[in-house]
# Entry
Amino acid sequence: MLAPSPTLDATTTTGGFLLVLSIVVPVAGILLAFVLGDRYVRLVAFAVIPIGSAIAVAILVALPQGNGPLVYLLGDWPPPLGIALRADGLSAVMLAAAAAVICAVAVFAAADFSPATTETRAPFVFWILLLAIWGALNTIFLGGDLFTLYVALELLTFAAVPLVSLEGRAETLRAAMRYLLFALLGSVLYLLGTALLYGLHGTLDIVLLSRRVSLEPAALVAAALMTTGLLAKTALFPLHLWLPPAHAGAPSAASAILSGLVVKGSFFIVVRLWFNVMPGLPGFAAAQLIAALGGAAIVFGSVVALRQERLKLLIAYSTLAQIGYLFLMFPLAFGASGRLESGDALAGGLLQAVSHATAKAAMFLAAGSIYATLGQDRIPGLGGAGRMVPISVLAFALSGLALMGLPPGGAYLAKELLLQAAAEQGQWWWAVLLQAGGIFTGAYVLLVLTYAMAPADRQTTLGRAAPRMGEMAALALALCSLLLGLMPWGAYLSIPHGDASDKFDLATISKALAPLLGGTVVAILLGRWEPPLGYPSRWTALLVAVGPVRRAALALSALVERGDKVLRWWPTACICLLSLAALFAASMRVAF
Amino acid sequence: MSAVTVFGLCAAAAVGLGLYGLITNPQPLRKIIAFNLLGSGVFLLFGVVGRRGAAASIGNDPVPQALVITGVVVAFSATALAIALVLRLFQKAGSTTLSDDAPPGADPSLPGG
# Structure
C-alpha cells in the first residue's frame, strides 16, 4: 500500500483533478436529469456512467505512476483550514469496484426502469438515486476529512432509503423508515465523536489527526462512539434490525446496490478510522471484540439464512453473514508494535469487500431475473428455474462459488491472506471462523441450487421472460468476482509477492472442495427441505437417515431464529448499540 | 461554574433525553422529534468546542460553527425525508407503526416499533 507521505500531502498532485471529477460527474448528472425531466433521465444516466467509469479507471492508472496518494486541495487551501481529497490504493480499488457494480446494475435496470414501462415516478427516481449513491460513495472513498465523510455518509443514507421503498408498498415503507431512523442514530453517534475529536485536536483532517491523536480518555470515547455509529450503518450483528427487510423488500436492482455497495461505504469509513486516523488507539481487546461480532454475524446470519423461505430474504441474511466476514481482519492486522498496520490482513479485508460487492450484487440481480420469470421467489418453488432462466441460475451459482472462496476468486485470495495473517499471529480461532464462513456460504448456495435444478412441478410460467441483457449483466458481474484473484493487486494493496500466481496445483483445488463438502453437510442438517417432486426416493431416505441429528440441529436453528426476532426489536437493538459503545470504550482502555 | 461547563452539561442532557426518546417511543413521529433533540445536543457540543478554542487563543473558533451549520442542514433534510416517509406510510397503511407483524390498521400506540 502507498503510505501517505507528509511532503506530498500539502499540495495538489498531478492527476488530482480526477478526484474532483469523480464526485462532480455523478452530481452533474443528477442536476441535468432534473432539468431535462422524466423522458431523458435514462439517457443522462447512460451518458454519465461510462464517463464516471472512465474516471475510476484513470485514477486506477494514475495512482501507481506517482509516488504517494493522489491529493486534491479544494480551493488550494491546505488542511487544517481547507479540505483535501485523497486517493490511496484502498480508495482506487473501491472506486473501481463501485464503478463496475454500478455499470452492471444500470444494464440490468435498463429494461426494468425504462421510462415507458410504468406510469409511476419510480424509474425517474431510481436513476437519480443510482447516480446519487455513486456520488456519495466516491466522496466516501476520497474524502480526507472526518466531517466530509460524515456528510457523504448521510448523502449515502438519504439516497439508499428511498431505494428501499421504491415500490411504495406499506411493508417496504416500514422497512425504509426503520432503516432511516437507525441509520440516523448511528450517524449522530459518529457526529458526536467528531465533535469530541475536534475539541481535542482542532482538526478533522485524517493525516493531521493521525499525527496528533494520543491515548486520552476523550479520544477513546470518540473512537468508540464513531465506531459504533458506523457499525449500526454497516448492520454488523447485533445491529442488523433494518437490513433483512430493507434489502429483501427493495426491487432487485436496488437490492444489488444496497447489499453490494451501500454497506461498504460505512465499512470503508471504519477502516479509515482504525487504520488511518488512529492505528495506535484501538487495542488488542477492541479488535478482538469487533471481530467477535463479525464471527457471531457469520454463524447467526448463515443459520437464519438457511431457514428462510424466500430467496431474497436468504440473500439478505447471507449479506449479514458476509458483513461479519469483513470485520475478521481487524485483530489480524496488528503489527509487532501493537498498532494496526496496513499489511496483508488489510489487503485481505479490502479484497473481501470488493469481491463481496461484485458477487452479492450479481446474486441479487440473478435472483431478480429468476423472480421476474417465475413470478415468485419461494425457494421450494424454484423448480424448473434451471431450464427457464439458465443464465441467471449460472450467474447465481458462479457468484455463490466466488463468495465461498473458491479459486481464482477474489474471496479466495482474501481468505488466503487472512489465513496467512492468522497463522503469523497465532490467532487460530479466526482461522476456524474464516473456514466456517466458506462452509456456511456453501450450504445456502447448494440449498438454492438444488431446488433451482429440480424439474418443474407445474407447467406454468407466471411471470414475464427476463430480459437477456439483464441476465448477461449478472453473469458478467459474477465472472468478474470469480476472476478477481488474477488481477495485479500489488500496486494498490500490500500483497506478498508470488501469492497471486501459484494457486492452481492439486493442493489448492482439494482445499477449495472443503467448503463444498462441508456446505453439503450443513445444508442437509440445517436447510429447509420440502423435497420437491421428481427427486428420487433415495433423497428422502437420506433425510430420514440423518433424522435425529437433523431434528436437534433444526431445534437449535429455530432458537437462533427466535433470537434474531428479539434482536431485531427496536429497543433491543438500540440498547445493544449503546452497550456496544460502552464496551468499545472500555476495551480500548483495557489494552493500555 | 463557567459558561462552557454549563453549556456542556446542557448538551449532555439533550443528548441523553434524545437517546431515551429515540429508544422508548414507539411512534415514528416522536422518534423523529427525539432525533432532533439528540442532534441539537451534538450541535450544542460543537458550540462548546468552538468556545473552548476561544479560551486558548483566537476570538471564537469559526470552524465548529461552519460544521454546525452543515450539520443542521443535514439534520433538516433527514427530518424532511423521515416525515415524508411517515406521511406516505400513513396514507398506505392507515397507521404509522413500524413493527413488521402488525396488521394494517392496528393500534399505532402499541409498543414494538
Remarks:
- The first strand of chain A starts at residue 70 and ends at 73.
- The CA atoms of residues 439 and 515 of chain A lie 4 Å apart.
- The two ends of chain A are 28 Å apart (CA to CA).
- Strands of chain A lie at 70-73, 84-87.
